[in-house]
């Protein structure tokens, strides 16, 4: 989903929802995930970067801020070479005390996009159908930058870079201590675009889908090109779920000039039913992964 990120002169949706934002927890959870992925214990980190293990632990628990030099030392230790990802983590570290990290980008993102980020931060689950794009929470930085540049039409290079950082930062909901449960049904057409000047970009994007599909809280299915007529022909949508009650669930839709939040429980339920139909029409998980793998290998 393109998530209609840019600010625009269009009015703020009358039925848009808001939710309480988060603070610096995504940074701590991401640093812990990176450490564990590197096979390091707290004591190992303490020895290699000359930082007490208690301090590392408090940073990971979001009970202590982190200086730029210390963050760079940890990212170097964890072999994080992606410049966009490092920029995002530094931004969160700088502004972790704000009511929501995305407020840093309030002059760039639209109010409705800020609402989406806030909802994702509080949500327990998201069910999303995408007809032409990889879902934002599953995009690589390179894919995000290319699609944001193409879809925003009027964004400056600086705005494209900022919006790419925002999209990467949003993905922390998938690595927090209680991660967002994401179920994505992606039309096969979304997996086939080719950028002749940069085939590596799409290979890396498809590999990221495979990597995330292996996570216990991420489910990815592909709706094949030869599927029978389906409700997804009406367009992409997401259903954002909350732990308290289904009455708080929200459906999210977007178009070229704005975004719409559907909150009426009966209408949200219809989107939930639509997703169930799409899920039933899509390939099973193993066949979906096999198709993604074959498409990646064919590039």
Short description:
Helices cover 45% and strands 12% of the residues.
Q: How large is the radius of gyration?
A: 19 Å
CATH domain class of the largest domain? Alpha Beta
Q: Give the N-terminus to C-terminus distance in angstroms.
A: 23 Å
Q: What's the SSE pattern?
A: HHHHHHEHHEHEEEEHH
Percentage beta strand: 5-15%
Helix content: 40-55%
Q: Which residue ranges are poorly predicted, with pLDDT under 50 across at least 5 consecutive positions?
A: 8-24
CATH architecture annotation of the largest domain:
2-Layer Sandwich
Mean pLDDT: 84
Note the total helix count.
Answer: 11
Query: Helices and strands: which structural class?
Result: alpha/beta
Largest sheet: 6 strands, mixed
- The total of beta strands comes to 6
Shape: globular
Q: What's the number of domains?
A: 2
Q: For the largest sheet, list the strands in their spatial order.
A: 3-2-1-4-5-6
CATH topology of the largest domain, which one?
A: Endonuclease, Chain A
Task: Report on the architecture of this protein.
It is built from eleven helices and six strands. It has about 300 residues and is an alpha/beta fold. Mean pLDDT is about 85; it is low at about 10-25. The protein has helices at about 25-35, 40-50, 55-60, 70-75, 85-95, 110-120, 140-150, 155-170, 200-215, 265-280, 285-299; strands at about 125-130, 180-185, 220-225, 235-240, 250-255, 260.
